[in-house]
Amino acid sequence: MTGASDGPLAILIGPMASGKTSVGRELARLCDVGFRDLDHEIVARSGRSIPELFATDGEDGFRALEAEVLTELLSEHTGVLSLGGGAPLVPISAAALSGRPVVLLEIDPAIAGRRLHGGSGRPLIAGDDPLARWASISAARMPAYRALARHTVDAGDGTAAEVAARIRALLAHGSLAHPDSCPSQTQEQER
């Protein structure tokens, strides 16, 4: 297992449309650390969009690239990291995430439905009834998410900034056991 001081301050996982990117950006801003999004890193490094990668390399090819980029980010990034919904399911990635400060963002299906925009840009739910596909995929993935998560946060309860503030409180109270946890609002005011 990696030492507690290695790697990201917090790693956000959860189903599609749970707000991992928007909450992650807010959390990084609150903690004054860098933010990285695994999907964005994959796109930047490959020069192709996620739908293009799925179309040309298939899901297996995409997942192999995703695992490779995740491994690099876990060793080099010390801020907030958000993952795509399927990243924690790949055995090598799940093993790399084990014992790390992983936070599961859960979301109600009704809220997810409003955020999915018909599945646009999401190859796994494209087509007829993206919400039904989302629900099926999310239900299948949830046991793996829960097995990795140190904490679970309702990402549908409030704005991205409010959800990030709740995660920040977990970090500040040492609940995620990262020695470089961002300070609480109270600690900042005492400085």
TrEMBL record:
User: Any idea of its EC number?
Assistant: 2.7.1.71
Residues binding Mg(2+), per UniProt: T21
Q: Which Pfam families match?
A: SKI
Q: Quick one: which residues bind substrate?
A: D39, R63, G85, R141
Q: Which CDD domains match?
A: SK
Return the broad EC class.
transferase
Q: Keywords for this entry? A: Amino-acid biosynthesis, Aromatic amino acid biosynthesis, ATP-binding, Cytoplasm, Kinase, Magnesium, Metal-binding, Nucleotide-binding, Transferase
Q: Where does this protein hold ATP?
A: A17, S18, G19, K20, T21, S22, R122
Annotated localization = Cytoplasm
Which HAMAP family does the record cross-reference, listed alphabetically? Shikimate_kinase
From the Swiss-Prot or TrEMBL record, give the protein name.
Shikimate kinase
The organism named in the record is Brachybacterium nesterenkovii
